[in-house]
Amino acid sequence: MNSIILLAGARILTPLMLAFSLFVLLRGHNEPGGGFIGGLVAATAFALYAKATSTTATVQALRMQPATVAALGLALATLAGLWGLIGAGNFLMGMWPLLATAADGAKVGLPIGSVLLFDIGVYLVVVGSVLTILLALEDDVAEAERRPEAE
Amino acid sequence: MADVTNGLEARIALGGSSDLRRFAPALASIIVFGIFCTALPPVAAGETFRFVWPWIPALGIDLSFVVDGLALTFALLITGIGALVLLYTAAYFQKHPGLWRLLTLLGLFELSMLGLVLADNLIVMFVFWELTTITSFLLVGFDHDKADARAKALQALLVTAAGGLVLLAGLILLGALAGTYEASALPALGDMTRGDPMYVVVFALVFVGAMTKSALIPFHFWLPNAMAAPTPVSAYLHSATMVKAGIYLLARLMPALGGTELWFWTLTLFGGTTAVLASVWALRQSDMKLALAHTTVMALGTLAMFLGGGTVYALAGAAAFLVVHAFYKASLFLVVGIIDKQTGTRRIEELGGLGRRMKLTWAITLLAALSMAGVPPLMGFIAKELQYEAALGAASSPFLVAGFAMAANAMMVAIAANIALRPFLGRTTEATAAASEPPFAMWIGPAVLALGGLLFGLFPDVLGDFLVEPTISAKAGEPTEITLKLWHGINVPLMMSVVTLAGGGIIFFAATAIRKRLAAAEAGGLWDAERGYDRALGGLKATAMWQTQLIQNGRLVHYVWWTLVSFAVLLWSAIVIGGGIGVPTLPSLAVVEWALLGLIAFAAVAVPLTQSRTTALLSLGILGAGIALLFVLYGAVDVAITQLLVETLVVVLIAVALLRLPRLRLPRGSAAPGVAWGRLGLSALVGTGVGVGLLAVLATPFDRTITDFYDAASVPDAFGRNVVNVILVDFRALDTYGEIAVVVFAALGALALLRVKPAKEPSGDQA
Amino acid sequence: MNLFAINLTIALGWVAVAGTVDATNLLLGYVGGFAGLWATRQLYGPNRYFERTFAAIGLVLFFLYDLVRSSVGVIWDIITPEMLARPRMIEVPLDAESDLAIMLTANLVSLTPGTLSIDVSPDRKRLLVHAMFADAPDEVVHDLKDGMERRILEALR
Amino acid sequence: MSGVAEIAAAICLVLGGFLTFIAALGLVRMPDVYIRMHASTKAGTLGVGLIVVALVLVGGGSGVVGKGLAIVAFILITAPIGAHLIGRAAYRAGMQPWQADQSTPVANRDDQP
Amino acid sequence: METALAVLVAILVTSSLYLMTSGHMVRFLFGLLLLSNAANLVIFAAGRLTYAEPALIAPGALAPAGSVANALPQALVLTAIVISFGLLAFALVLVYRAHQSLGTVDSDEMRVAEPRDGGEA
Amino acid sequence: MIVTSELTGVLGTAVDIAMLFLIAALILTTVRLMRGPTLPDRVVALDLISMLLVAFLAIFALASDESAYLDAAVALALVAFLATVAMARFIDRSPQAAAAPERDEEA
Amino acid sequence: MVLLTAPILIALSTAVLTLFAAGDRRLQQSLSVLGSVALLVASLLLAGTVLNDGPIAATMGGWSAPFGITLAADMLSAAMVVITGVIAVATTVYGLADIDPAAERVGYHSLLHGLLAGVCGAFLTADIFNLYVWFEVMLIASFGLLALGGTRAQLDGAVKYVALNLVSTVAFLIAVGLLYGATGTLNMAELRIAVRALDDDTVVLVTAAMFLFTFGVKAALFPVFFWLPASYHTPSVAVSAIFAGLLTKVGVYALIRVFTLIYDTEMPLLQGLLLTVAALTMLTGVLGAAAQNDVRRILSFHIISQIGYMILGLALFTPLALVGAIFYVIHHIIVKANLFFVGGVIRRLTGSEDLARTGGLWARSPWLAVLFLVPALSLAGIPPLSGFWAKFVVVKASLDAEHYVVAAVALLVGLLTIYSMSKIWLEAFWKAHPDPAFEARPMSGVESVALVGPVIALALITVAIGLAAAPFLDVAIVAAEQLVDPEAYTRAVLGALP
Ligand code: NA
Ligand code: NA
What we know:
The complex is a heteroheptamer. By secondary structure, chain A is mostly helical. In chain A, 70% of the residues lie in helices and 4% in strands. Chain A has helices at 4-27, 35-52, 55-62, 66-88, 114-146; strands at residues 99-101, 107-109. Chain A is elongated. The model of chain A has no long low-confidence stretch (mean pLDDT 90).
């Protein structure tokens, strides 16, 4: 929107919000948050960035087309599901490679595994999809505005 | 690929080596005919052959076939006449690009017709029945470039298909009450089927099916119209074989359905009326082919009438006439085809003097016409005698039957004379000036058929023993003896024959006058059932247009409206039938909750009331936030956060799109006060319905087992402390998996919408 | 090595020792670390870290004071039936050059009652301010430049 | 200790609530969008800030302080930027600030068609 | 509160359907958004409400302390919200494009696929 | 009862008072949102409503001693800003909507 | 069990992979066809297993029913998935010559396989909310496919399609919510038990009414079918073919599933309504077809009409009637998709779908004529093609149940179907092309293989179902038996332990 103030704000806020989104993603299994919320926050961050700069700059910041991000997310979620299917015979079954069963039957170790991978997939899908729609719409509106015409 | 076959066909049709190949179908038909001939002696001796292959056991449908007298008679007619017609066609259409299509369709028809008469299982029979309808349709429309041919083909299709569907119902019901679809099992069950309360229905349905196929009044009109088909097709399908399928059907089902008063009266009245009226219509035709077509209708009526009689003589009369008619009528059709081909016209007044140029053709015509007129010693005479005998022996109302038969036959005489004499005698006309005899392949067919009529007349026992007797045995369901003779001495039937011939002579000479009278009488349209068909078709089209414009009128508002009306009706019916709900108690809430509810409700009401796009949009934002707060209040933090984020993103998206969207001014239609109140009423009906549904649910006790499991298993088994998230990514992860797919596809779809734009179309923005 | 980074490391170490990751511990660690670093400031040679930190703290305090002070004026105007405000658009020359400095200036101007940053001129030399009590525009300009902007530039220097 | 914190929190709460109310009142009473923004930006931020401070004082939980500070910091950064954007847009759209000496009565602003 | 929510749902549905029957596609979108919210409230209320006890388990604990909010409908609503978002975003873009190409948002004017003189003459 | 809470004493009363202020503020702001008259006015109102809701969540977290609710407040603060930016951009790009209130009000 | 997840997984994986391959059209096409073939193979394996072992189930994430989501396949589900596989292969092959490269670039293949994933998911899930999710996957993918191309007609059609489907989809969600509130479960096998145990008739009937409404809209029943004729003739041929074949059937499937498994006790109450709806659906659909003059618009209205037969089968609720409904569904998917394919070839050859502007095909392309006749006659119920048996069983079931009026309507509609199909034949095939100078554009080798190959394959299947109806009917019978007595299904679902 061509405002120095917004631009400077966005330069601070976008990374902050992205960091926050990752934080929300990672802790989601235990506190409010998770892939959806994280993804939505990240999408909000990029949306803000897009408003302050341009859609092109936002895609550059993403380093790939947002649709690819979404596809990547769906692929990760699928892989997470397949992991359970191959590892335990159940699609989407939680796999915990860093957990071991102690002598008393309790699980010890880090509860990180397929479920987190799945949630990361969700995160990427949400970021990618929201941005795909938003940026494409922005582009189209901008293009339509460039064409002078009677409404 | 299609082009290749096209070329191939063209080569086959026109190329030199194809000359012989085009006779192959005829040859095949002759071979089959020969095979059936070998079955004659054993069948005549009372044997029947039955072949069964399992097909659809679950429905009681086997591929069962029976060769008995009735079937064999038909099979011989089908293959024999089929061979001659195929031969004739190969010559008649030698240079026609559609020759192979015609031969193929005729061959398919022949197979279907054979299947129809040989099938023992009624459903299998029906399968072939319908196939004959379809092949007939394709054949009638052979000259498909002509709109008229297409319309006539459609008519034949619709009438016979309609009958077919009625018949199907009849057969299913018959199968239900007999417990079997095997026709060969029906004779033993006849008393049971006739005694069933559904008998009348079954009979009516079967009879209507037979009527349409066999062109009995009031479904007769399609048959003359089917003369749009090439002549060999008419000779074969619409005279000798397919149209007799209805008669065949009645004959086949007689053991199960026949022998009642209902049967007798129905068949006699419909058959007799058809016979007489068709004869009258035949008289007034000047197109010989149409005249023959109407006489075919007459023959079909006669056959039905005699089947109605049910006595052995009646059956014998019908059986003999069946064969006789097939011979002379096919022969005459083919002759008319020859005349048409050689002179370019079939109209009797345009023809004359052909006798000198086409002696052979005339001889054939004379022979066939004599049989048609029932002159001894031709087979037609014997059949007519049998008819009269049967008429007199009819259990009830012999004079009625006899009257019908005599009247119709007298007119047949006149028509036969007309066809056999007028084109060949008199002065040569413009059309006949250059006429010459046809090639061998064309005259051999009619010649064989005409000669057959003579031979059977001379040796009636061959016909009697090998065809008529076994046929009626099959019909009557028991072995029957009958003797066919040329000379029975001077008896009542003979006297009747004489009267018939005399009457025929008078009619022939008074033909012109009669025709005028008839034309005047018919202008009233008294018997014009075809007009009924036209009206029905017109009505159908009009109804279709009317209902489509009423229902599918292109207006989304209308669609949404009726969709919601349906929902409201369903919903409130369910509530009322279910007994409604108790009166809910007023909730006691904290001020904050009231405030929140009020805020949400206010925003919800503001959206439709405001005329400002942005006010509506911002109200939606507030509503979303308010609902998020409700979620928070009741412990749904994840949901609340998601709601806030999503609602905001929606508002952002809409705000972007709104830059290029117009204002909220209402379309004129929905802004009118009456319409607005209607909309409000309907919306409120659905809204309260959903609310009542929710209240009803809330009044039931709640089973929390599954949630309790989640609460207990979340940490120990799924290693997560946020139960909602654990449900999303573990317990019910498949939901989430599908859900992210939705999001991805939504994005893809939106992207496609924005990125793929047709280049050519004018943009509406400029409009 | 950046002193801020060291300070942050100390704070994180504190958190690790405390065993609980939360803002309170982080803050305590940071403050403690800052005190330690300040006490040993000779060790690091010439360094602006401490000055900037104190300037930032000063800025925050000044801002809070300003916020409270002039809020009263706005509140009073809102509550009283008559409209006391004499609003006007005023252009304030900017000394700040970096985007961040301009943003901070504009933001703090907006947050203090009575003034609201509306726009920055295309040449980034002037800030358009909506002043609520602008009977004497020059006074407003002076207050802003000498108060808020000076402190921001000090904290960022 | 907790007693003092509670009383301080109570004061912050009431004051914060009062300030947000003033902000809203300003929004309704002030004559044009610029002055309304003065009210909402300042009093709103201060009010919310005070309420969050109250929460930090008595919330006690480990997450509360961090989240509370995050909220306050975030609002302090974003509220003025938002006000700037709206004000700028309004100004660029040609909306002239209300002048005390102009003859238009304040109340009539809202009633314009 | 559930009873109150039922009333609120009725209001939301009424309002949304009133918008959806207007023939103005932007209003239709607004109605759709309202309707989705109503559906979410239905699910949420149908799972019964528990005041201010999120379904979170304290660190170290094996299960929630005491009765907490029903987590399942929350998960369902969350899923539904995200799905509705996808659908609504698509619908929005569709209406936008339809307006761009057809020049109207009045559904009565959208008669390209089913022209007025459609069907057999 | 104003807020369902286990808090008693001075803090409980303070929560109730603050909540009443907030509700009153909410009503007033909604009035401004509806009356406009210009789009910037409405956006300012929306912005304030977001802030009020953040305050609401904070009070609610305090009253129910549930810090998880602050997460919602953080999220709201984040996205509210985006909404404001988006609406400001809307005004920026369709100035007629801002400058001439009656245009958008057109019935 | 892998077999149950495989169809969904294959479809979604293909969707993802084709998205990654967006730069390479050939690769996308290969992946797409390969994915469809894999789906077909997987579905055949699944059907074979179900045929041998009876209903099977698999828990997702290893959480046993009713806590986790369970996928399950009885014969009906398995058969539906197989048909989906068949149509998938046919459509992807046909699409090789039918789809605009620009559309392929932006995600046609992904959306198509997404659609397939949604359809398979809907057929296989035993969880009512999960059913909602798969419905949405299917719906959103169909939205994308429908509007792909962005022509004015497509946008118009899509607006109506999207608007009406979204209304019904929300009703679905509400119904699921209410049902959950009343029973506390989402597992469909457990719902059977829970709904029986419910005291409150209002709750049972209200939820049943909502499901009837929402699935009725999806199935395009009278009077809520508006969205279908408004849109199905607008997208590319491959897309409209798969829509025509599959989408409404998912609604029919859902109706059959929900009303045999959960609300079977309410069926006597609903019968009158359903019979009326079925009859009116048959009639209005076929009359709509009779009023049209455009190939795909005629075919679209026919879909509605034929759905009526399927609902008639459900409404009668006798074992034979259910057999008929299932057989009808299977037959109709094949035949209707094929007719749309042929319609596409007609357009390709004559340059139009408006019958007035077509013609001459019987003379020019007799093989196409034959290929049209097979599905057309089958649709019209002409023996011995598949449609005849479908109609036969349904009519017989009606007559057996002594519902003579609906039987009569069913037969009458058969006649009207013949009439409206003959219109295409008369105009496009028999009539000479209105432009005497008209020359059909020749098709390239690839084009004719891609366009005609699927038509031939589906026509052969139609003939095969007709001539060898017994095995197909046996499958339908097994499926119907499992519906009438879902004990095996519920045992598989509820007993499916990790
Ligand atoms: Na037979
Ligand atoms: Na989910």
